[in-house]
Amino acid sequence: MVTEDKKTIGIVGLGLIGGSMAIDLKRRGFADRILGVEKDPVNATAAQRMELIDELLPLEDCIRRSDLVVIAIPVGAAVPMLTQILDRFRELGETGKIVIDTCSTKSQIVRAARYHPCRRQYVATHPMAGTEYSGPWAAEPNLFDGRACIFADTEESDPKAVKLVEILYDTLNMRPIYMNADAHDVHAAYVSHISHVSSFALALTVLEKEQDEKHIFDLASGGFSSTVRLAKSSADMWTPILTQNRDNVLRVIDTYLDKMKAFRDAIADYDSDRISELILEANRIKKILR
């Protein structure tokens, strides 16, 4: 059972998110001990040498010894992992243990746990933070400071579990936002997933045109670098995100293509007024993002 004085946190997946959480949860006093699970032997060795964790363990031992387990692996693997952990909670008869996930899609993982006898010990979350880098080497302190954390379908979780997870994310200096899993996936498609698809597509476009990569680096300005930055993101992470959130992402891509066609038509027609109109309309985003 979790106590206020001592918390052992198990983290499954010691990459950017899991590793960064390990750093700040220990450094800021939420965790007394950090246990890690990592299937990649190179990442596991790096996490140990970097002292991101206190001990590397097999999953079964980590579940048994942890008060709270964090699933910080790609969502395609996280769905069966959640069921496995909840099954183990049931076998152990540990009603006080808690598991959370940090996945970028929520509908499928929430549905997978909906009728599990230990469902109330699971809190679905999505800390909206990250970089284009992956692996334990990408982990950094203060990654989550000032960012939002989505809590999905909290009414299906035990209130005490939700409260502890709120304290966890407060320790990471994140602000909570509550919504249902389906709404989360719609919003994520617009504010995150389309950005990555656009970046991947832009990178492919430039790479196809510029066979000599030296020209890309010679001519790349800050604008290009920031726009295409997300194209360096991991395929292992983003392939399951885009497939799990397929319907929402497709709707956003269709809208995006309509807007691209509007620009294309205006440019093809030398229609300066229409080009300016589209740019000015887009400038309204400044009122939202400052």
In total, how many beta strands? Answer: 8
What is the helical fraction, as a range of percent? 40-55%
Number of domains: 2
Share in β-strands: 5-15%
What is the overall shape?
globular
Structural classification: alpha/beta
- What is Rg? 21 Å
- CATH level-3 fold name of the largest domain: Rossmann fold
Major sheet description? 8 strands, mixed
- Point out poorly predicted stretches: none
Question: What is the H-and-E element order?
Answer: EHEHEHEHEHEEHEHHHHHH
The whole-number mean of residue pLDDT values reads 92
In the CATH hierarchy, the architecture of the largest domain is 3-Layer(aba) Sandwich
Walk across the major sheet and give the strand order.
3-2-1-4-5-6-7-8
In CATH terms, the superfamily of the largest domain is NAD(P)-binding Rossmann-like Domain
- Name the CATH class of the largest domain: Alpha Beta
Number of helices: 12
